[in-house]
Hints:
nine-stranded mixed sheet; 11 helices; 13 strands
Amino acid sequence: MTTAKVRKAVFPAAGMGTRFLPATKAMPKEMLPVVDVPAIQYVVEEAVTAGLHDLLMVTGRNKRSLEDHFDRMPSLESQLREKGDNNKLASVQHATNLGDIHYIRQGDPRGLGHAVLRARGHVGDEPFAVLLGDDLIDAKDTLLADMIAVQERVGGSVIALMEVPHESISAYGCADVTEVPGENYVKVNTLVEKPSPEEAPSNLAVIGRYVLHPAVFDVLETTEPGRGNEIQLTDALLELAGMPADQGGGVTAVIFRGRRFDTGDKISYIKAVIQLASERADLGPELVQWLREYVPTAPTWENK
């Protein structure tokens, strides 16, 4: 089955970031640095590496610094050039040259499904990718490119799944799937948003990468608010899974077994920073040595 090429990526970035208050009172959570690069830049780089250069940010209030980050700053570039600081100059210019970035406001904070729906005017009638900024995928992995290849071959929509401990499934959307012999994807039968471990159909969690058929827009238009009184993308995907293929229906999934860094909560964010910094040649040796000295003396909390 041949479908239109995937050319565009959408980045929902209108959330309030309340888990990281007070840091996110005046700073978008997407701009929190993971080592020395804002989290959102890792995700944009992933989309560009997968061949997507038409990029749409769905933002909200107090997100101006996000736009500024991907814009030119001639005065700073001039200062760095005059100082001969070519490495920092290159890193600053890299962020401004990633792709053709557009911005739209979400307006009412009505959930992920609503944020995706706001992209309709820009995306039009073609398949597109959605990348959530809380999930950082190791740059060596080809998850998004694999998903795009499946969508362009099979049609419908494609989601990313990852095995998680069964007791953790209530933090995720969860999928019931059927294997497709000889293929690198599975068929999605049903989706449940944040089920209890007892009710979960599997331990396959939906993570923040989607390649969606444009039929999702019509479905989202009529999707009633669900959990949290928000329009849930999971609910729209569940409806798409039961629709005929010639109407843009059908949902498949790529099961991801690579490295994912969750920056959606404080402890996972801190772990991501430490892991990525430890692997950098300019920081790793000193940081790892310090960790080896510090960890044996760190507080123990078992009895506190």
